[in-house]
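Interim report to the steering committee. The following record documents the input for DUF1697 domain-containing protein (326 residues).
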Amino acid sequence: MPAPELAADDVRLAALLRGVNVGGRNIPMYELRDLVGTLDVRNVRTVLASGNVLLDAPAATPVGTTRARLEQAIGERFGYEALVALVPLTLVGELAAGAPWPDDDLWHTYVAFSTTPGLLREATTATEENLTADAAAADAGATATQMTAAGVSGRDDGADDPAPGRVPRAASPGTEPAEPSAPLPGSPHPAPTEADDAPAGTRLAEVRARAATRRTLSEQLAANEEAAARVTELRERTGRTEVCSVVAASFLVGGAERDAERGDLVESWQHPDAALAARLAEVGLDALWWRCPRGSSLTTPLARTLARAHFSATTTRNVRTLRRLS
């Protein structure tokens, strides 16, 4: 069906509702369409069943005012705190066309919208910091496991235990290792040796096995560099060479598709340039392009960040959905 004609004094908008028909919040699209039609808007249509509404509003009415009316009406009618990203359709089309990555059946590209300026950049910064911290923790766990495997468990010369934080000296060749003494108060327990390892199949054995196979920090950083190189090559080949944040986080995400050669998950995102960001800010919005393997949009590091209550003023749409809207 062709789109209805746009009146000269109207602007066409896409209202993107957060969290509709997921997590037990079910809103029939015909009820949503009828409700929006009672406001000062025209040509109301819904697209798909995920809370996407096209509407024409008076150009003289600020977008923020129309958004507030929509949120109030939807919240009162359906009994929840509604969040609506109200985006001029011209910007929807620009964001869909400007996705930094080509279509790929194994990967999905999304646009995240925020109704709080700066929130998406805060989310990507927090994600990168969490990944760095988790990689360091994995490195520490791998180092402890390597020390245990090497037999580093105590002093062999009868001296007192070393101070917390110092690495004990291994036994000299031909000598019997000293019995490990109890740890000093407040110091960490020594890592278990194979002799006192947990029984196979127990939770403790599983945790130790995972720690032994995690990447060291240097290996994690090397994987990130390789992922960045691949995305850079893709950017150059497609004519888009902007810098993009890229993370490889195989030990953080389970059940997602992984790179066949390296076995790691690659997730990437890109913020709009200054000109597009300024146009979005004029209507109270920010946006972010985000790419992840198919089926992992709820489990990647960035997805987990955006799921926190602090980042609730965000909603995401697949680029293919945005193309249908525009």
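The longest strand covers residues 10-17. The committee is asked to note this result when reviewing the revised timeline.
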